[in-house]
Specification:
- This protein is α/β, with parallel strands linked by helices.
- 44% of the residues lie in helices and 12% in strands.
- The protein is built from 15 helices and 11 strands.
- The strands form 4 sheets. A 5-stranded parallel beta sheet has the order 4-7-10-1-11. The chain has a two-stranded antiparallel ribbon with strand order 2-3. The chain has a two-stranded antiparallel ribbon with strand order 5-6.
- Helix 10 crosses helix 11, helix 12 crosses helix 13 and helix 13 crosses helix 14.
- The radius of gyration is 23 Å and the shape is globular.
- It starts with 22 loop residues before the first helix and ends in a 10-residue tail after the last helix.
- Bound molecules: zinc ion (ZN).
- Zinc ion binds next to helix 5.
């Protein structure tokens, strides 16, 4: 953070990442990456949804690091991004779909997978899939990870699923899949999580922490897998999140606008290039994105072997004690995030340095007093803003058009 030491490369000069030592190194380089976009290329149109490349996001290193750690280690409990509108929260979340490896997806409406049969027997899938399985046909195919966004007006029934009035017979058929089961192996993004009803937020957080959930409707019940990376975002000016709910998110990042003028200018340029031709813009970052995805995959595979030495754990516990945090989730998130951070650096052991990096995002806003303070700060910020506007743009200037 702070002022840039080196000046920006001249415009149009390629400075793409071609090889990388570790995911961390790449993340550090990422903000400085400048891609050349061929402006002459024809616009692909709006039909295709091409996310803004993660590596083209300027600054916001805390947010980027938190999102990456949550991709590496689903056990850390997801991420909550807290900040005003227009700070790139949604853009960053949507860009993550390009960073995850493909995963197996069911070909069937009921979401049956081969592993359901392997773990729960032939009755764990619908009759059609049971037949297919018997004949050695695939029940799933490899597909790109998707971003499942929870609509703000979703009901609890939409979220967990409910009775399908059209279906009869086989138990699995009588329940409709909910958004949570469609989020399995994907990213679940809950924007404006502070405006959702508590029951729904609880259902989402339960499913996320257990990796599965059961729906019961009368005599019928079904259990669905729900292994997903949960990402929430909220604008605290629009309403608070109950401290108990806030506590259930693993990492929390307070996202602010870019502070440095050059960064803001660069972010503006990139956003403009992307809007002019999103396909060309994305293509310019594709080689670096591919490398990044491979690093993420390697780090995910490394994670199970990353150990937390006792003396490092003791330091972490001391820190939590010093901050007077009661929640057990504090150490779970702190240690799981530290393990992910070590894996990203291709190490087998967590060090105190890993703790230092992840502690702010793992431990911030775990006490309700801080949350109240944060909301209070927001209103004082509004005053500061009004003062600055009044100073720089005095009201008595002649009005041309507004
Ligand atoms: Zn099926």
């Amino acid at each position: 953070m702070g002022e840039k030491e080196t000046s920006l490369p001249p415009q149009g000069e390629p400075e793409l990442i071609t090889k990388v030592g570790s995911l961390q190194e790449l993340l550090e380089k990422a903000s400085g990456v400048r891609a050349v976009v061929d402006q002459g290329m024809e616009d692909a149109g709006l039909a295709e949804n091409i996310p803004f490349p993660f590596l083209a996001l300027v600054g916001q290193n805390q947010m980027k690091l938190a999102l990456l750690l949550s991709l590496l280690n689903p056990n850390l409990g997801g991420v909550l991004l807290i900040g005003p509108r227009g700070t790139g929260k949604s853009t960053a979340v949507r860009s993550l779909v390009d960073l995850l490896p493909e995963s197996r997806r069911s070909l069937c409406y009921y979401g049956c997978l081969e592993e359901d049969v392997e773990s729960g027997g032939i009755d764990a899938v619908c009759p059609d899939c049971a037949k297919k399985y018997g004949q050695g046909e695939p029940l799933s195919k490899l597909e790109k990870v998707r971003l499942v966004e929870l609509p703000l007006n979703a009901t609890l029934e939409d979220v967990v699923g409910g009775v399908d009035p059209r279906a009869q017979g086989h138990a699995r058929l009588r329940l409709k899949r909910g958004i949570l089961s469609r989020a399995d192996r994907n990213l679940l993004y809950v924007d404006e999580v502070n405006l959702l009803n508590d029951q729904i937020v609880d259902a989402i957080l339960d499913a996320a922490s257990q990796g599965q959930y059961t729906v019961r409707r009368g005599a019928v019940s079904a259990t669905y897998r729900s292994h997903f990376t949960l990402i929430g975002s909220m604008n605290p000016e629009e309403g608070n999140l109950r401290p108990q709910i806030m506590d259930r998110f693993g990492l929390r990042v307070v996202v602010k606008g870019l502070e440095n003028k050059e960064d803001r200018m660069e972010a503006y340029r990139r956003t403009r290039s992307y809007k002019e031709n999103n396909r060309a813009f994305s293509a310019a970052y594709a080689p670096a994105t591919r490398l990044f995805r491979e690093e993420i995959q390697a780090s995910r595979e490394k994670l199970p072997s990353v150990k937390l030495p006792e003396e490092v754990a003791a330091t972490g516990l001391e820190l939590i004690q010093k901050l007077e945090l009661d929640s057990l989730r504090a150490e779970i998130t702190l240690f799981e995030a530290a393990r992910a951070h070590a894996a990203a650096d291709a190490r087998d052991q967590v060090t105190a340095d890993d703790l230092r990096v992840v502690a702010p995002m793992a431990l911030r806003l775990r006490r309700s007093t801080y949350i109240d303070q944060y909301i209070a700060d927001q209103s004082s910020e509004t005053e500061t803003l009004e003062d600055a506007v009044n100073e720089l743009i005095p009201l008595d200037e002649p009005e041309e058009d507004v």
